[in-house]
Amino acid sequence: MEIRKATKEDVPKIVALLADDKLGKQREHFSLPLPQEYGEAFERIHRDPNQELMVIEDHRGQITGTLQLSFIPYLTYRGGIRAQIEAVRIHKEHRGKGLGRKLFEWAIHRAKERGAHLVQLTTDKKRPEALQFYEQLGFTASHEGMKLHLST
Questions:
Q1: Which residues contact 2 (CB under 8 A, 6 or more apart)?
Q2: Segments of the chain with pLDDT less than 70
Q3: Integer distance in angstroms from the first to the last C-alpha of the chain?
Q4: What is the model's pLDDT at position 145?
């Protein structure tokens, strides 16, 4: 297994992973060719030095997982850096084999390399198995998160 930065060629496989669950089907639009918004989003992520879109690839070159790691500089904590993990997905045929743990261990190590003092994530309350997995990794539900969806 190799963890590497995503390339433009990986985008259709990443979107397929994002769309391949109950909640993802509601917000993603996976069809080939992909809607251009996905390519535009990849370009914005790729150009931003505070964004790392990663994939985990098996020995056959198949993408089996993905996550996005964002680095957020801010004034609190004496000008600290917060690392945010988002859009974590492991292909359904590869779940329960330790790939998610490997991906998270990589992300935590990378956050330390970049000088982050905190790694955070959010998880949908409709995914209790994800919450349990994150707790096993040492994450704690220390805050109550809130969202405001904006119409575009």
A1: 56, 57
A2: 24-26, 152
A3: 39
A4: 85
Give the global pTM. Answer: 0.90
**pLDDT for position 20:** 86
54: CATH? 3.40.630.30
Q: What pLDDT was estimated at residue 26?
A: 66
**Total domain count, the chain:** 1
Which domain does 105 fall in, by range? 2-136
Give CA–CA dist 74/86, Å, rounded.
Answer: 19
pLDDT for res 152? 67
**Domain annotation covers residue 111:** yes
CA separation for the pair 123, 61 (Å, rounded):
29
Residue 117 lies in a domain: yes
Question: In sequence order, what are the residues at sequence separation of 6 or more whose Cβ sits closer than 8 angstroms to the Cβ of residue 75?
Answer: none
Q: Is residue 143, in this structure, part of any structural domain at all?
A: no
Per residue in 61-70, pLDDT tens? 999 999 999 9
63 occurs within a structural domain? yes
Q: List CB contacts of 34: < 8 A, sequence separation 6 or more.
A: 11, 12, 15
Bridge partners, 120 (sequence order):
84
